[in-house]
Specification:
Blueprint: E1 6-14, E2 17-20, E3 23-27, H1 33-43, H2 56-69, E4 82-88, H3 93-104, H4 113-116, H5 123-132, E5 138-142, H6 148-160, E6 166-175, E7 178-187, E8 192-193, H7 196-203
Parallel strand pairs: 4-5, 4-6
Antiparallel strand pairs: 1-2, 1-7, 1-8, 2-3, 6-7
């Protein structure tokens, strides 16, 4: 692929607000994540029966991805050749704590499989892939801070070697009461250049 790459669109979820391309889609006056994400799910017409069984990291990533992908009509209704490259700093730590707490409880030693299944950060990629029929490459990186450079290099490698037509990538982090999602879709379409400065600028909005 020799075509210049661009960011088609981007989504932020933070501070009880969901925004697309910098414009708020949904916001609520609540600091409680579960109250906020449940209300956002209903307002944005997400429609995925497994949503409320997910851990918080997966809910966060899934909702941001759904905002970006559900109106993408440029690809077929069947399998879509969109790769996923996500990153964060806390891995699945929020769920890991719950899993460890159940193991440490002598009265409830055997933890719930519903919790255990989410003790890997890339499980959220699986949920996104199932909903949107994505079967391309995927990776989940753990960084101390957001790294525009690595996301850019890895994304461009996937596209230039024709391993994907588009790449959904970004940062999705959940740890205790702190949460933040910034996902964006990269392809040959769009008006925002795919470079470190633009990725960083959008992340900081």
């Amino acid at each position: 692929m020799s075509t210049k790459l661009h960011i088609e669109r981007y989504c932020h979820i933070k501070n009880s607000t969901v925004s697309l391309n910098g414009a708020p889609l949904f916001e609520i006056a609540s600091e409680d994540f579960l109250t906020f994400i449940k209300a956002a799910y209903k307002e944005l017409d997400t429609k995925y029966s497994k949503f409320f069984k997910m851990d918080n990291l997966s809910k966060l990533a899934f909702l941001a991805a759904d905002v970006l992908l559900k109106e993408d009509t440029s690809l077929s209704e069947g399998e879509k050749n969109i790769a996923i490259v996500l990153s964060n700093r806390a891995s699945s730590l929020d769920t890991d704590r719950k899993h460890q707490a159940s193991i440490s409880d002598p009265k409830n030693y055997y933890p719930s499989p519903a919790v255990f299944v989410y003790t890997l950060p890339n499980i959220c990629i699986g949920e996104i892939s199932i909903k949107h029929k994505l079967f391309s490459e995927n990776s989940f990186f753990i960084f101390e801070t957001f790294s525009a450079d690595l996301l850019k290099v890895y994304t461009e490698s996937l596209l230039k070697t024709n391993k994907a037509e588009k790449v959904l990538c970004g940062w999705v982090d959940f740890d205790a009461d702190s949460y933040e999602a910034f996902l964006y879709l990269v392809s040959s379409e769009g008006t925002i250049e795919h470079n470190n400065n633009e990725i960083t600028r959008l992340y900081r909005l």
